[in-house]
Amino acid sequence: MRERKAVVSARRCALAGSLLLSLAIAPQALAARAAKADAAPAERSAPVVRNTVDELRQLMDSQQLTELRTTYNGSYGASLLFNSSTLQYYAALFHEKDFWRVIKTDSVDNAEKVYRTFVQQTEELAQVYIDTTRLEAGKRYTENLVAFNEQRLRSLQQEAELQRQQSLQVSSSIQQAKQQAVTLSTDLRSTHSQLDALNQRIQALQAQQGNPALSLPAPETSADPAATPTGEPGTPPR
Q1: Whole domain around residue 155: which residue ranges?
Q2: Rounded distance, CA 75 to CA 166, Å?
Q3: C-alpha 171: how far from chain center
C-alpha cells in the first residue's frame, strides 16, 4: 500500500514538473513562432533577382546607380552606370525603355570596352531606323508634292477652260459686232442715198428759187379790147 502511494506521488511530481517545464518553454516557443511569422512576409516581399537586367532595374528604382555615360542613336541607346556601394559597373543596351542586354563587371577597362561595343551596335541598329525615317519623310514629301501638282494642274485646266469659254464668248461677240456693222453699213448707205436725193431736190429748189429770169404766168385777156367793164374807171370789177 505504501509502495503504491509512493508511485502515485512520484507520478504526480513528474507531471507537475512537466507542466512547469511546458509553461517555462511556451513563451520562448511562441516568441520563436512569432518571429518566424514576421520574417515570412519579409522574405516573400523581397524581390527575386533572376538576371542582370532585373538587378539593374532594381538598382535604378532604388537610385543606387550613377549614370556615367549614355549615347542615343535614334530610339536605341547604350549606358554605362556605376554602383558606388559595390564598385561594380553596368553596361546596358536598350531600345526606348526596354533593356536588351546588361553586362556587370568590376573592371573599368572591361566596362568601357563593353559600353563602346554597345554604342557601335546602337549605330548599326539605328541606321535602319534612320534610313526608314528618311525614306518615309521623302515619301510623304513626294506624295504632298504630287497632290500639290495635281491640284495645280486642275486649277490650270479650269483656268484654261474658263479662258476657252471666254474666247468663245469674245469670238461670238466679235461675230455679232461684225454682222451688226454690216447691217449698219447697209443702213448707212441707204441713208446716204436718201440724203443725196434730198440734197439734190433741195439744191434744185434752191436753184429754181434763186433764178431771176424765172417767168411768171401771163395774165388773162378778153376778146374785145375796146370793151371795158362798167363802173368807175380804174376800179376793178366786182
Answers
A1: 52-185
A2: 59
A3: 45
Q: What is the DSSP letter of 220?
A: P
CA 99 to CA 122: how far, in whole Å?
12
The answer to whether position 4 is within a domain reads no
Q: Which tops the pLDDT comparison, 198 or 21?
A: 198
**Torsional sign, CA 58, 60, 66, 72:** positive
Kindly report whether the global pTM for this prediction surpasses the value 0.70. Answer: no
Give 232's DSSP letter: S
Q: Residue 63: inside a domain, yes or no? A: yes
Q: Which three cell numbers stand for residue 163?
A: 479662258
Q: Which three cell numbers stand for residue 154?
A: 486642275
Q: In whole angstroms, what is the distance from residue 76 CA to residue 26 CA? A: 62
| 229: DSSP letter | -
- Calculate the dihedral angle through the C-alpha atoms of 190, 196, 198, 201, rounding to the nearest 10 degrees: -140
Task: Please report the beta strands in the chain, taking only residues with DSSP state E, as ranges in sequence order.
Answer: 65-73, 76-83, 88-95, 98-105
Structural domain includes residue 42: no
Q: 224 in a domain, yes or no?
A: no
CA 41 – CA 196 distance, rounded (Å)? 134
Q: Do the Cβ atoms of 104 and 90 come closer than 8 Å? A: yes
Q: How far is CA 170 from CA 86, 166, 180, 192, 234, in A?
A: 94, 6, 15, 31, 86
The pLDDT tens digits of the residues spanning 81-126 come to 999 999 999 999 999 889 999 999 999 999 999 999 999 999 999 9
Q: Which residues contact 110 (CB under 8 A, 6 or more apart)?
A: 89
What integer pLDDT is reported at residue 33 of this predicted model? 54
